[in-house]
Amino acid sequence: MNAFAAILARDLRLSWRQGGASLLTVGFFLVTAALFPLGIGPERDVLARIAPGVMWVTALLSALLFLDRMFQADAEDGTLDQLALAPLPLELTVLAKAGAHWLSAALPLVIASPAIALLFDLGAAAVPVLALSLAIGTPALSLFGAVGAALTVGVRRGGALVSLLVLPLTVPALIFGAGAVEAASLGLDPQPHLLLQLGVSLFALALAPFAAAAGLRLALD
Amino acid sequence: MHFLANPGRFLRLSAAFRPWLAGLAAVAIAAGLYLGLFEAPPDYQQGDTVRIMFVHVPSAWLALSIYTAMTAFALMSLVWRHPVADLLAKACAPVGAAFTLTALATGSLWGKPMWGAWWVWDARLTSVLVLFFLYLGAIALRAAHDDPERGGKAAGILTLVGFVNVPIIKFSVDWWNTLHQPASVLKAGGPAIHASILTPLLVMALGFSLFAAWTVLVRAEAEIFGRRARVLELKRSADRP
Fold first, then answer.
1. Burial group, residue A184, by CB count within 10 angstroms (0-12, 13-18, 19+)
2. CB pair distance less than 8 Å for A151 and B154
3. Which range, A41-45, B97-101, B182-186, B227-231, is most confident?
């Protein structure tokens, strides 16, 4: 467990010191979300109507930003070989790195989401549901993202490829997440959507570490 | 299964099956087209547009079953390092993508007169579109690797992860009440379609499946010959003084 915490702490420290990845992600999230009212027009009811989908799509894209670096940088300087030799199973290493990705790239979005919800004039009932659905659903993005990142280690133009591989897998999280926020803003009970979303995340938690570790072993031998 | 691990043996067997598959596929598709276009009665509500079904439904079935076959081949290749299974998985991807695109395109042509729109964002359509992207992802990931063996394994892992979507697609119309009609042929209590329409549909499905099997075999054979040619090429350039 010590090694697990060490990898998690190391990745967090790296993402903070290398230009503050979290701040960049939040900045990207804000700018992208702010582009929608400029492109669509300032009608308040239209914006409130599309807000749940816009938030979820922009959160998805922001989480993708640093995904291709999750294993690539370690593979280039040889750290990945060391991690593979370490006694910690590669599956747990993947989990630690996906956890660090979630803490540095997704958690800031959860915290920033109420501010953006205000920009879109989302109802007061929907704001906490948005933050909650992001908190429940984004682990699936980090975990499926780890699979995509592991499979593209050592591949040229891996960054563009990761998006093509990961985005289809994240569609269920997107649908249930946007569904929960929409239900809350219409005054309905968002709980079924949130539970389904939790199911998607737990499923990703059970499946993704093994798939990503298999992908890393492939890249290493 | 291990009997077929030898590419030479696979080639001999495939060459024996291939003409039969091609011939039967041609007969079944011709018969299905005749039955579907001339014998089947027009629908009392949809008129002649219902005939799109004879292409749309078999394509959609194959889009799912080819992905399932591709997953089985990927599993065989990853678990038992079966060399021919990887070739078959590679051969499945473009064929399955083509059938998925056919299902989407014919569905779109059918949706315009029936629903009044080329495309609606309902659960079935969206999940089939996701299936199409999964096929594209598997093809792109394989193509991005220089080493064919490594590319095959990476695509295999991705195929296994993406297989989660197949049951979602199959049952999406039952779970979510959407515009797309629920399954009418494969359901408990027997098919809800009259025999005059069901017969051409099944004949077409048989023809399409045989055609898909034939195409996959041809692609796998071509891949084996391509690899042999590459080895000969390398050997010749190595022998050259």
1. buried
2. yes
3. B97-101
Return left, alpha or beta for B111; rule: phi > 0 is left, psi -120 to 50 is alpha, else beta: alpha
Q: Residue A16: its pLDDT value, please?
A: 79
- Cβ of B153 and A158 within 8 Å? no
- A119 or B104, higher pLDDT: B104
Q: How far is B60 from chain A (nearest CA, A)?
A: 18
Going by C-alpha positions, the residue among B105, B97, B94, B103 that lies closest to residue B59 is B103
Minimum Cα–Cα distance from B122: chain A residue: A175
Confidence band for B214, pLDDT divided at 50, 70 and 90: very high
Give the up-direction half-sphere exposure of residue B209: CA atoms within 13 A in the CB hemisphere.
12
Mean pLDDT of A64-69: 80
pLDDT of residue B185: 60
**Which residues of chain A lie closer than 8 angstroms to B157, CB-CB?**
147, 151, 211, 214-215, 218
- Give bridge partners of residue B43 from the DSSP assignment: B47
| Cβ contacts of A156 on chain B, cutoff 8 Å | 144
Q: Is A206 on the interface with B (CB under 8 A)?
A: no
Domain count, chain A: 1
Measure the CA–CA gap between A201 and A144, rounded to whole angstroms: 9
Report the amino acid identity of residue B113: P
Candidates A90, A143, A218, A221, partner chain B, best to mutate (most B CBs within 10 A): A218
Q: Among all chains, which residue has been given the structure tokens 């779109």?
A: B108
Comparing alpha-carbon positions, the chain B residue that sits nearest to A144 is B161
Domain holding A214, by residue range, is 2-220
Q: Please count the residue pairs, one from chain A and one from chain B, whose beta carbons lie less than 8 angstroms apart.
A: 59
With tokens 């979507």, the residue in question is B165
If phi over 0 gives left and psi between -120 and 50 gives alpha, with beta otherwise, what is residue A189?
beta
Per-residue pLDDT for B70 more than 90? yes
Six token digits for residue A155: 């591949």
Whether B164 sits inside 8 A of A161 (CB atoms) is no
Which sign does the torsion angle of CA B74, B82, A208, A79 carry? negative
Residues linked to residue B47 through DSSP beta bridges, in sequence order? B43
Q: Which contiguous run of DSSP H or E holds residue B186? A: none
Q: How far is A164 from chain B (nearest CA, A)?
A: 6
**Predicted ipTM > 0.90:** no
Chain A residue closest in CA terms to B154: A151
pLDDT confidence band for B181 (50 / 70 / 90): low
Cα(B11)–Cα(B228) distance, rounded to whole angstroms?
13
